[in-house]
């Protein structure tokens, strides 16, 4: 295979830095591989660079230095490679980013657009796409809400529609930016269980950003700790000790 990364990596960041136009550096010299089949989390204080890291992995925020390489595809600075990488990368957002007046099904169908040209996507999508979207709604337990406008769904249900939309892309990589931040603990556990189960069943690599250390420990098999745009810790939950947390959450008291 051309442009294959070593080992199990699906995407690799090499010496990546991101500086925003007004001069804030959000990431500094990040080198990181995300591996197939892993369910990883990035932890860090507000402003540590978690969202920027996730967005850089699909070039919603291109690096100002360094490269992002997708396995089997190559450097994301090439527009064609980026298009292929985005097609196989699902994105889940804290605020769902759904079209509120559209039904759950219409929103999930958006996940199929990456498989069609711009002009084709202006027409109703083929039946096969409708079937895939309905399957995805079924997997997140919302088949009975397929025709319900999203604006009458609960926060947890909206997040499940967001997961179904990402899933409809048939992704190999899932990026989830604070997927449980606006949910109560019971709904948050449901969403984490759902994400973990689906990613495991479909062999999807996942990188989530979270604020809740206890959720990261319970569900994830790899923790990446960021502080001030740099990686402070990268390892399994069992290796994360209080001194790492003190470094990640520099201004906060840590309760273990
Ligand atoms: N669009 C932007 N333009 C300018 N600066 C930005 C932009 N987005 C983020 N930043 C800055 O980059 C730094 C990292 O922000 P980022 O959103 O990646 O952190 P975060 O860890 O995700 O924070 P939070 O947990 O609050 O979402 C911060 O200093 C932030 O102010």
TrEMBL record:
InterPro entries: AAA+_ATPase (IPR003593), ABC_transporter-like_ATP-bd (IPR003439), ABC_transporter-like_CS (IPR017871), ABC_transpr_PhnC (IPR012693), MetN_ABC_transporter-like (IPR050086), P-loop_NTPase (IPR027417). GO terms for cellular component: membrane. Signal peptide: none annotated. Residues 11-253 form the ABC transporter domain. GO terms for molecular function: ABC-type phosphonate transporter activity; ATP binding; ATP hydrolysis activity. Keywords: ATP-binding, Cell membrane, Membrane, Nucleotide-binding, Phosphonate transport, Translocase, Transport. The keyword Transcription regulation does not apply. PROSITE patterns: ABC_TRANSPORTER_1, ABC_TRANSPORTER_2. It comes from the Bacteria. CDD domains: ABC_PhnC_transporter. SMART domains: AAA. Pfam families: ABC_tran. This is Phosphonate ABC transporter ATP-binding protein. It comes from Leptothoe spongobia TAU-MAC 1115.
